[in-house]
Amino acid sequence: KPLSEPTIEEVAKGITDGTFKKIIVMTGAGISVAAGIPDFRTPGTGLYYNLQKYDLPFPEAVFEIRYFQQRPEPFYALAKEMWPSNYKPTITHHFIRLLEEKGVLLRNYTQNIDTLERQAGISPELLVEAHGSFGTTRCIKCKREVDQEWLREKVFRDEIPKCSDCEGLIKPDITFFGENLPERFHTLTHPDFQQCDLLFVIGTSLEVYPFASLVDRPKSDVPRVLINMEEVGPFESTKKDDCRDVKVLGDCQASVRELAKLLHWESELDELVHQ
Ligand code: OAD
Predict the structure, then answer these.
(1) pLDDT given at position 82
(2) Which residues form the Deacetylase sirtuin-type domain (predicted)?
């Protein structure tokens, strides 16, 4: 029977008693803040509040494909700062991995490009990197794949990386505004959200579409759990209350640890964190 006004305790019970076994986790930059990577939109610390030195017409321009084609320098300067290197997955990443180990993770849809999901050991089949990642690199014109190390060297030498075949700009396969999301996103969302029996939404402002629209895709009786610093999207108090929604506000790392306690998974989570 559908849960009406579920609590986080009831959700946890539903996971342990096998009611929920096709869980989708939607994630965003908030889950990697504890790893030392700033998010985009938190006033003050978010990346979009700290781009003054690049002299952009508006912050998102740094990730806009048309702007990049005209003026790629700000993106490469930023890429040099953001290049994934010594960051470690957080408790939240390990928790998602634990859902996989328990056999209840249907998919993790992430907007993050930091590849910390892969580092945490989440299987590639269970992962949709909806905004791409730094993992592969190609020419934006002829689409030829280019060695990532070559790109890194160029970027760190402040050179503009261009294709040796067609002179097109070389860019990591992160999805810019104005570009299509990866094929996987489009092929998997429909069957996934038909089956999904529980949705977690963690560390995202739900500001960017089409990703944000996924939150409306589960069937109408499927509980949706927001674990975030603030209320976002359909979870905002000003919106009509949806009686299947649960909100756990505050730092997601602490909330996820609490949830692991309710599930009696704390020591297994610690093992993953410390391995
Ligand atoms: P945002 O920066 O828009 O949102 C991050 C959310 O996480 C906000 O609601 C924060 O309040 C919350 N948050 C921050 N720290 C947290 C913490 N410790 N615990 C819990 N919540 C926390 O980031 P995204 O929603 O991921 O796209 O942004 C979506 C897309 O916008 C990105 O993928 C990127 C960007 O433009 C592209 O570049 C294509």
Answers:
(1) 79
(2) 1-266
